[in-house]
Amino acid sequence: MTTSQPSPALVDSGDPLALERQVCFALSVAARNVVGVYRPVLEPLGLTHPQYLVMLALWQHGQLSVKELSGLLQLDPGTLSPLLKRLEAAGLLRRERNPADQRNLALALTERGRALRARAEEIPVGIVERLGMPVEQLTALHEALTQVIAASQEALAAPGTAAGAPSGVA
Predict the structure, then answer these.
(1) Structural domain containing residue 132
(2) Which residues contact 90 (CB under 8 A, 6 or more apart)?
(3) Where do runs of H (alpha helix) occur along 14-162?
(4) What does the entry list under GO cellular component (predicted)?
(5) CA distance 151 to 164
(6) Alpha carbon distance 25, 88 (integer Å)
(7) In this predicted structure, which of 5-19, 35-49, 67-81 has the lowest mean pLDDT?
(8) Mean pLDDT score of the chain, rounded to an integer?
């Protein structure tokens, strides 16, 4: 992992295709690096980052259907299936047919899964410390990313529309 900053000549070159000017590149690198910061914090809990997201949703919402969880995490149910199987094998959740609708799987935390929450409560503060960024800056970033998510969802929902980006930022 390199920590060098892009050359000012590249960023200021005016080239709309300069790698360092691409929002998609910055988001991709930031996501990979932040997940990397979580990795050693989650290992003692026996969780990967995607599994942690599943557990967060279940700790917050309680029992969920796979469809509901898929919507919350914005992941395809086919992507969730192997994660859920591993969490079930680890004894953290149960997958059961929903009594109200046998076609749907209901996900529920086990006692072990509920107990893991107490250990996980230390994670957010630990991540903030590891990043070494002010909470206010991380909060502002979260708000900006939430806006990017909403804008990208709108763009995906309206295929064929040409949304113009401001010059030099893509």
Answers:
(1) 17-46+122-156
(2) 46
(3) 23-42, 49-61, 66-73, 77-89, 111-120, 123-131, 135-157
(4) cytoplasm
(5) 12
(6) 35
(7) 5-19
(8) 89
The reported pLDDT for the residue numbered 9 is 47
Shared-domain flag, residues 106 and 69: yes
The alpha carbon dihedral of 64, 153, 51, 142 has a sign of negative
Say if residue 26 is in the same domain as residue 71. Answer: no
Which helix or strand (DSSP H or E) is residue 98 part of? strand 93-98
Q: Indicate whether 62 pLDDT > 80.
A: yes
pLDDT score at 10: 45
Final residue belonging to a domain, choices 68, 94, 116: 116
Distance of CA 113 to the CA centre of its chain: 20
CB atoms under 10 Å from CB of 55, counted, come to: 22
Sheet of strand 101-109: strand arrangement = 64-65, 101-109, 93-98
Query: 162 in a domain, yes or no?
Result: no
